[in-house]
Amino acid sequence: MRASLLQISVDEGESVASRRRRTADLVRDQAASDLVVLPELWTTGAFAYEQFGREAEPLEGPTFEAMAGAASDAGVWLHAGSIPERDRDGTLYNTSLVFSPAGDLAARYRKIHRFGFDKGEAVLMGAGEARVTVRLPQTTLGVATCYDLRFPELFRSLVDDGAETLVIPAGWPERRRTHWTLLARARAVENQSFVLACGTAGTHAGVPQAGHSIVVDPWGEVLAEAGAGEEVLTVDFDPARVAATREQFPALKDRVLGLEAPRRQDPGAPPGT
């Protein structure tokens, strides 16, 4: 399986409309890949709080249309990162969209853990409630976003839901880059899953971004890692290694704590996600 992580640079000098068109073209260039992943809030920047309300879109807004068309043109599964979504009641959400190679919406995930403590995303956006997995022909994706990476119980629950490949778009700051790499590897090891973590480059409202998108295998080995600037990180990996790892070292079977009730479904997501 081939995945391409598009580490988009988000800078104030480029309009959202221009970046949307440029990113759609980059997706179309990845026709040789099976899966393409974009970062978190790449339209506005994850720390550009004042833009969230100004650039918020309905679910089927301009970014939805552009990314659905790009996925269809390239014939790829597309995790289109996340956008500031405005729900019908006016609530904002940090919402990820996943499209099929036909350009159909396969899943929507509203970020559960909001960053900022008593400011920023934590007070400007609503919290998602539903875990989301997406079945691809080669693997099942578990979907999470940025700050979610610090909460291992979410990822263990995604594994309970059948996830084999954990996909994490982010707008992670440079000053905590060591945490980004450490946590991505930890989530891979403890869940015996592939991790595809796609960050942004550039500067969001004065906050330098870490970049360094990373792909980690189920043993915690780094298969590929980007640098700090805008980059397309492409890697080939074998999804069958998840089952092989779990059989060879069946640690997940020894779980005692943390077993959960059945998942909550996202009422706004397509059936089966």
Strand order of the largest sheet: 6-5-4-3-1-15
Radius of gyration: 17 Å
- CATH class type: Alpha Beta
Outline type: globular
Average pLDDT rating: 95
Structural class: alpha/beta
User: Could you please say which CATH topology applies here?
Assistant: Nitrilase/N-carbamoyl-D-aminoacid amidohydrolase
Compile the SSE list and pairings.
Elements: E1 2-7, E2 9-10, H1 16-28, E3 35-37, H2 49-55, H3 62-74, E4 77-86, E5 92-99, E6 105-110, H4 121-124, E7 133-135, E8 140-143, H5 152-160, E9 165-169, H6 177-191, E10 194-198, E11 201-204, E12 207-208, E13 214-216, E14 222-225, E15 231-236, H7 240-248
Parallel strand pairs: 1-3, 2-11, 3-4, 8-9, 9-10
Antiparallel strand pairs: 1-15, 4-5, 5-6, 7-8, 10-13, 11-12, 13-14
Helix pairs in contact: 1-3
Overview of this structure, please?
This protein is of the alpha/beta class. The chain has one domain: Nitrilase/N-carbamoyl-D-aminoacid amidohydrolase, CATH 3.60.110.10. Helices cover 26% and strands 26% of the residues. The strands form 3 sheets. The protein has a 6-stranded mixed sheet with strand order 6-5-4-3-1-15. Strands 7-8-9-10-13-14 form a 6-stranded mixed sheet, covered by helices on one side. Strands 2-11-12 form a 3-stranded mixed sheet, with no helix packed on it. Helix 1 runs parallel beside helix 3 (62-74). It is globular.
